[in-house]
UniProtKB/TrEMBL annotation:
This is DUF4870 domain-containing protein. The keyword Membrane applies. The keyword DNA-binding does not apply. Its main location: membrane. Residues 1-40 are annotated as: Disordered. Keywords: Membrane, Transmembrane, Transmembrane helix. Residues 20-40 have a biased composition (Low complexity). The lineage of its organism: Bacteria, Bacillati, Actinomycetota, Actinomycetes, Propionibacteriales. Pfam families: MamF_MmsF.
């Protein structure tokens, strides 16, 4: 009789010949879950595609969103003004730090801030190159003049930082006013 009914007996009744706890074909025994069911007290999570954060988890974005026009002006001005402040505080040696920080953080956020931060960094590179050239000339002329050149040529080291400081102030004002500007006699090492 159980051969003609897949679930045991007629009308889905269990066949009394099966041992207790074993499910007949197509039926589930007590306490077992079927695929797709959740047990009591477990939360259900929907599967999400790779790279998407689920509810309550922070999302990690690889691309940065663009900033407003006013923020571009502000950060463009900060790239120049920060270089001046750093140059004054470090006697001309750390002016590049502000330029690098603004360039790295905001280069992909807008073309205006990228241009001003790159110009600020280019100005710092040119100033550094001039200081290297002047340093070599200072040592050579100091040795050739038996030490007199060391004292006479010392003020020349203040010229590149002063010129760079003036150009940074002009750049900060131009950036604050929203004007595109490239410092004169400054090659574009960083674009």
């Amino acid at each position: 009789m159980s051969d003609q009914y897949p679930s045991g007996g007629p009308h889905g009744q269990p066949d009394h010949t099966q041992p207790y706890g074993e499910a007949s074909y197509g039926q589930q025994s007590y306490g077992q879950q079927s695929y797709g069911q959740q047990s009591y007290g477990q939360q259900s999570y929907e599967q999400q595609s790779y790279g998407q954060a689920s509810y309550g988890q922070p999302s990690y974005r690889t691309e940065q969103s663009p900033i407003s026009v006013q923020e571009e002006r502000t950060w463009g001005a900060i790239s120049h003004a920060g270089a001046v402040v750093a140059m004054v505080c470090s006697l001309g040696f750390l002016g590049f730090v502000a330029s690098i920080v603004v360039f790295v953080m905001y280069k992909d956020r807008g073309p205006f801030v990228r241009a001003h931060a790159a110009n600020s960094l280019n100005l710092q590179i040119v100033m550094f190159l001039w200081l290297v050239v002047l340093g070599v000339a200072y040592v050579v002329l100091g040795v050739l003049t038996l030490g007199i050149g060391f004292f006479v040529l010392l003020p020349i080291f203040f010229v590149p930082p002063v010129i760079a400081g003036v150009l940074h102030v002009v750049g900060a004002i131009k950036a604050w006013n929203g004007e595109w500007w490239t410092p004169p006699l400054t090659p574009q090492f960083v674009k």
